[in-house]
Amino acid sequence: MKFLKLLLLFIAVQMHAQQGGMWIPSLLEGMNETEMKNLGMKMSASDIYDVNNSSLKDAVPQFNGGCTAEVISSKGLLLTNHHCGFGEIQSHSTVENDYLTDGFWAMKLEDELPNKDLEVTFIVKIEDVTSQILNGVAALGTEEEKQKKIQENISNLNKTYPRESFQGVKIRTFYEGNQYMLFVTESYTDIRLVGAPPSSIGKFGSDTDNWVWPRHTGDFSLFRIYADKNNRPADYSKDNVPYTPKHFFPVSLDGISEDDFTLVFGYPGRTTEYLPAVAVAQIVNETNPAKIEIRDKALKVADGFMRKDKAIKIQYAAKYASIANYWKKWIGETQGLTKSNAVQVKKDQEAAFQQKVLQAGKQVEYGNLLADFDKNYKDILPYTLSRDYFMEVVLRNTELLSLGFKLYQLEQIQAMRGDQAFNDRKNNLRDGSGEFYKDFNAQVDEKVFEQLIELYLNKSPQQFIPENLKNTNIAQLTTSVYGTSKMTTYDGLKELLTGDTQTVLKNLNNDKGYQLVKSLGEAFLKNVNPKFEEINTKLSALQRTYMKAQLELNKDARIFPDANSTLRVTYGKVKGYEPRDAVAYEPVTYFDGVIEKYVPGDYEFDVSQKLIDLYNKKDYGPYGENGKMPVNFIGTNHTTGGNSGSPAIDAHGNLIGLNFDRVWEGTMSDIYYDPAICRNIMVDMRYVLFIIDKYAGAKNLIDEMKLVHPKSKNQTTNKQKVKAKSKKN
Ligand code: ARG
Ligand code: GLU
Fold first, then answer.
1. At residue 120, what are phi and psi to the nearest 5 degrees?
2. pLDDT by residue (tens digit) across 491-539?
3. I want to staple 42 with a disulfide (CB 3.0 to 4.6 A). Which of 197, 330, 380, 651 is the partner?
4. Active site residue 219
């Protein structure tokens, strides 16, 4: 008996010691701070987030909405992933100056390249505004009324909250509507490209290695923030000056060892960790397989063309990578959820939850939650699936159809908002579609269409297929659309969009491609989406109550809010893992592994002669470790999409790595985090420095950084030193 008690206690402590979780930086004091210190952290919660003094958060902006970056010098030097800066690197590239292939390095400020539509956003302050936002909501009857009131409260507070003229305000919900946080932000828009390694380093391993450990990718690029003379945000001007940050990260030269404390700070996009078992089962059995099958076909078609034709390969490279990224993630996720028995684990948790509800005498409030989930998830399934087919087939993977859908929206704008709005949008579409056609090949798209429309017609829920498309001959449909539609060429599109409103609408409605999109779009907007939204609103309300119940009934549990693109802290240790029986992965990869993977001339695994020479010379300077050059490492930090480019920080607040991916076996961590196998992948900062210094010869950049040796004795926390040095705001 006593043994059993001890065992249970041990298990409880173990459970507690397992990490996972993405935490709000202003709320770390207490449980998180204690846990972090137990893991080896030497800083305090206020070193990470502080409103009145500079803190780590002042060096971690969101990069262009979808990624994270960090400031690494007193002159606003900014580090993020190569795949996050890819669009900018590509847009500066020409055949003569191909920065994607050869890399780019600005040796002085004047050489840095400005970018249109690139923005980084810092968080100045975070405030809990739950009571203001939920004010007057509880008294309202229906869910729709409640949501309307919440939106009103949000927009009022947004308008009235005090701020400087150059600051913004964002309000976001946490814990599915149980908490609201306000963020005061500062966005800089003059961001210049400073450096990028060639893709053979920055994208080494490409799609084959994507989501996979062991990994050998130097996935980084460098930018610089420019500000006006007062260090405030300003649009591009040649008179702007490098931004002076409130804080920047010193870079550690001492590297990492297994079990070292790590903290990853960034903007994770979206997770759904608190779904009921029934929802996870639908992802595993229904929606992921459907989406995977669609992308599988689209990718195979594109790959076939890309391998045979160089021009097509260039046209489709970025699109292919982006479609392949989540296709591959979903496969890993489905496998991981299956292997870890996530559905059964959730069911067991739900049984325990039901017990707790009983014990607490809360049957009236919470007793029907799980049954309601079951019913509504069952009801929503055909709508979810139909919506996924529409999204993937029409909006995402068949280019002619996704362009066609924009034309269909144009017709709707005319009906709803009149000729002026119609003309504005029409001209925008006509002038803006050049980019689309530059990378469009009608032959590729026709083959994609033929495969995908077949899936849509045969496999999506049949009750929502438009009548006129039932029993269609797919080969005939394909020939008639791609053989006659004006949308297959830019000239054709311009022709379609020329003339007065009536002419344009008439021409559109005579076009076979347009007719098809219109019937698909109408079926979706009339028969699928409204009902989907209706049930989904109910599910959101259930999810909110379920969250509230869990917070209430498990007072001591580590319950973190799902990711919502706001600034979060996640922490853990450098750690290997055992993906399957008899296989153990080390936590660090080395330069030797790059050479092992080298396939001359291959589009994924080629290595430049210059890098091979450096390998042969073993001239690693201060960046090597016992004659070896570390490249990537993994840790138990709970990250997701959006954490790309996030700083990996050591116990003292120095930069040790740059987050860029997760391991294959752990891609299910957006839904179910298993600490045994979920790992994030980072580039070792020493590899970044080595490439900048020894490969690119950009000593100027190394010189403006602050390189430190935190592991040698005598060193006080670097955070304090930098704090004393850097300018106070
Ligand atoms: N898997 C990483 C992320 O989710 C890297 C993606 C970019 N690389 C690629 N091969 N597609 O974004
Ligand atoms: N590569 C991802 C990104 O772009 C990060 C990897 C992940 O999803 O964890 O944000």
1. -120, 140
2. 999 999 999 999 999 999 999 999 999 999 999 999 999 999 999 999 9
3. 651
4. yes
CB-ligand 2 contact for 68 (6 Å cutoff): no
**Lining residues, ligand 1, CB within 6 Å:** 83, 206-207, 210-211, 321, 324-325, 641, 644, 661
CA gap 656, 685 in Å, rounded: 5
pLDDT digits (tens, 9 = 90+) for 58-71: 999 999 999 999 99
What string of DSSP letters covers 611-673? HHHHHHHT--GGG-BTTB-EEEEEE-----TT-TTPEEE-TTS-EEEEEEEE-GGGGGGGT--
Ligand with an atom nearest the CA of residue 317: 1
Catalytic residue among 83, 216, 638, 652: 83
Q: Active site includes 644?
A: yes
| Cα separation, 99 vs 81, whole angstroms | 15
11 membership: H or E segment, kind and range: helix 2-17
Residue closest via CA to ligand 1's atom 2 equals: 661
Indicate the SS3 state at residue 713. Answer: coil
| Cα–ligand 1 centroid distance for 297 (angstroms) | 20
Centre of ligand 2 to C-alpha 664, Å, is 12
Shortest CA distance to 689 belongs to which of 681, 679, 697?
A: 697
**707 vs 157, 183, 253, 622, 685, CA distance in Å?**
43, 32, 6, 10, 11
Distance CA 30, CA 51 (A): 18
**Is the Cβ atom of 644 under 6 angstroms away from ligand 2?**
yes
Are 294 and 455 in contact, with CB atoms under 8 Å apart? Answer: yes
502 Cα: distance to centroid of ligand 2 (angstroms): 46
Question: Is 210 a pocket residue for ligand 2 (Cβ < 6 Å)?
Answer: no
Give the pLDDT band of residue 458 (cuts 50, 70, 90). very high
Going by C-beta distance under 8 Å and a sequence separation of 6 or more, which residues neighbour residue 227? Answer: 76, 188, 190, 233, 234, 240, 241, 242, 243, 244
Evaluate: CB of 662 within 6 angstroms of ligand 2.
yes
Location of structure tokens 């991916």: 661
Which class for 425: exposed (0-12), middle (13-18), buried (19 or more C-beta within 10 A)?
middle
Strand locations in 246-389, DSSP E? 251-252, 261-266
The whole-number pLDDT of residue 713 equals 55
Per-residue pLDDT, 729: 34
- 207: Cα within 13 Å, side-chain hemisphere: 16
Residue 718 has pLDDT above 70, yes or no: no
Is the pLDDT score of 1 beyond 60? Answer: no
User: Quick check: 170 and 164 in contact, CB under 8 A?
Assistant: no
The residue annotated as part of the active site, out of 47, 50, 58, 219, is 219
Residue 7 reports pLDDT greater than 50: no
The Cα–Cα gap between 268 and 256 comes to 24
| Ligand 1 atom closest to the CA of 211, numbered from 1 | 1
User: What band does 13 get if pLDDT is binned at 50, 70 and 90?
Assistant: very low
| Residue 666 beta carbon below 6 angstroms from any ligand 2 atom | no
**How many Å lie between the centroid of ligand 1 and the Cα of residue 685?**
19
Nearest to 172 by CA among 323, 379, 26: 26
End-to-end alpha-carbon separation of the chain, Å? 60
CA distances from 543 to 445, 547, 557 (A): 40, 6, 18
**Three-state DSSP class for residue 172:** strand
Q: Comparing C-alpha atoms, which of 536, 390, 377 is closest to residue 461?
A: 390
Distance from Cα 674 to the centre of ligand 1, integer Å: 21
Q: How would residue 94 be classed by pLDDT, with cut points 50, 70 and 90?
A: confident
pLDDT at residue 385 above 70? yes
155-163 long-range CB contacts below 8 Å, 24 or more apart? Answer: 157/129, 157/132, 157/133, 157/182
